[in-house]
Write a structure and sequence with these properties.
The chain has 2 helices and no strands. With about 80 residues, it is mainly α.
């Protein structure tokens, strides 16, 4: 009887020790689904950054062209103001 209760105690202790460890491992596991979410977020952020760069470049080119046209107009016909 003593051996049986000792073996039941050891078996219970082993089960109680492994269940919390397996639950903690399952929560920290970042699998393929999380990796795909992270990749999607990074792609979205990269697209936003690229769009911002394109916007800034376009604005800069527009303003430089406008300035160049005004400058050329003043050289050709300095008496008349350029039209907007």
């Amino acid at each position: 009887m003593n051996v049986r209760s000792l073996s039941a105690f050891v078996l219970s202790a082993a089960l109680l020790a492994t269940v919390p460890a397996s639950l903690a491992f399952a929560q920290n596991d970042s699998g393929a689904k999380q990796s795909m979410k992270n990749a999607g977020t990074e792609t979205k952020d990269a697209a936003k950054d690229a769009g911002h760069g394109v916007k800034q470049g376009t604005k800069k080119a527009y303003h430089k062209t406008k300035r160049g046209v005004k400058k050329a107009h003043r050289k050709v016909d300095p008496d008349t103001p350029p039209s907007n």
